[in-house]
Write a structure and sequence with these properties.
binds adenosine monophosphate, Rossmann fold, 2 domains, 46% helix, alpha/beta, 9 strands, 9 helices, 13% strand, two-stranded antiparallel sheet
Length: 263
């Protein structure tokens, strides 16, 4: 049975494999429902940047305790890094996982997400890239109940693996404003961002090996997370990540059509 098209929404989740083309669909939702974008990937990249600026060049695996499946205590990390700055320490932890194409552990991700979501009053957000595991889905559902808020629907941007690998290897982003480019389909202007003229960069996790690792993480961890949300009663609208003719109008149409037909 098709769900009623919402006029006003509280929060929306956008999910899909990393590199499926979520951003243009998020732009549609942000405009249509007057929402803001809350991206755990962006949050982790910001912390990662704090760590990179700190200029530590030791091997990060020394901070990971394989046996305990956890980082060594923060006090010991601080001693080795020579700083107690919690954003640098968190940046190191994010980098350790992001750069291997692995998900950041749930306890770190959930706590960070809750703090940023809370700053927004738990509403008016497009949740981009969260939740991505079963544990995160459960955490979010508890949180929205506790804070008396809601998630109206999930937009799932779906794309086959081979197309994602092709697209992502040629992806470039602006480190200043976050605008996303593609070397063939949406090239930057002589290597510079068309919005703010900053030199665009390749994300450190956009290599084929790391992309394959992220695709595997999606299959193993995120599919069950989406199923859980759907079974909990949140409707899912699926849109193709690849369009024959990729125009703003076609993207908008396909998103709005999918919302109309969602189940
Ligand atoms: P994204 O920009 O959404 O592709 O995220 C980049 C990277 O950040 C991912 O490959 C993960 O390493 C990490 N990340 C982002 N969101 C999450 C999440 N919800 N759970 C775990 N790791 C995440």
């Amino acid at each position: 049975m098709a769900h009623e098209i919402p006029e006003k929404v509280t929060n929306v989740i956008v999910t899909g494999k990393s590199g499926a083309g979520k951003q243009p669909r998020i732009d549609v939702l942000v405009e249509k429902y007057e929402l803001e974008q809350l991206s755990t990937g962006d949050i982790f990249r910001t912390y990662l940047g704090n760590f990179d600026n700190y200029d530590y060049d030791g091997d990060l695996s020394r901070f990971w305790n394989e046996k305990e499946d956890d980082f060594i205590p923060d006090k010991e990390i601080a001693k080795e890094l020579g700083t107690e700055d919690s954003s640098v320490i968190l940046g190191m932890k994010a980098k350790f996982f992001v750069e291997q194409g692995l998900f950041v552990p749930d306890r770190i991700t959930n706590a960070l997400f809750e703090s940023f979501f809370g700053k927004k009053g738990y509403k008016g957000q497009v949740l981009d890239g969260y939740p991505r595991t079963l544990d995160q889905s459960k955490y979010l559902l508890n949180l929205i109940e506790e804070k008396n808020t809601d998630v109206d629907f999930i937009l799932w941007v779906d794309s086959p693996d081979d197309l994602i690998i092709q697209r992502t290897i040629k992806r470039r982003i602006c480190p200043e404003c976050g605008k996303v480019f593609h070397l063939e389909y949406k090239p930057p202007d002589e290597g510079k961002c068309t919005e703010c003229s900053t030199e665009v960069i390749q994300r450190s996790d956009d290599t084929e090996e790391k992309i394959r690792s992220r695709l595997n993480e999606f299959k193993v961890k995120t599919l069950p997370a989406i199923d859980y949300l759907r079974e909990s009663g949140i409707p899912v609208a699926k849109v193709p990540g690849h369009l024959e003719e990729f125009t703003e109008e076609n993207v908008r149409r396909s998103v709005l059509d999918a919302i109309e037909k969602m189940e």
